Amino acid sequence: MAVIALRGEVDMAGLDDLQRAVEPHLAPGQTVVLDLSGVTFADSTLLKVLHQARGKANDIGGALLVRNPSDLVRQLLSLGDLDDLVHAEVDRQNDLP
Length: 97
Description:
This protein is an alpha/beta fold. The chain has one domain (8-16, 26-60, 67-94). 46% of the residues lie in helices and 27% in strands. It has helices spanning 15-22, 44-60, 71-79, 84-94; strands at residues 2-10, 31-42, 63-67. Strands 1-2-3 form a three-stranded parallel beta sheet. Helix 1 (15-22) links the parallel strand 1 (2-10) and strand 2 (31-42). Helix 1 (15-22) runs parallel beside helix 2 (44-60).
């Protein structure tokens, strides 16, 4: 499992950096967890990267999860139909001993 902690603003200015941080970890059997606890602002850039990363992870037999989004980021994820990534992370944590 790879955990990537995002900090600050997630917007178009950081798109390339965000993609470079996530993409190398997408591999068969690999779970990538994005910890959003440090995100202070996010726009559709986050949705774009998450949609692309989830698609690639699903295609190759990996998984993408999101942890600790703020209420505002959680609303954004819901608007982008990505709130299931948060619920999957909570379910995974609940299954741990």
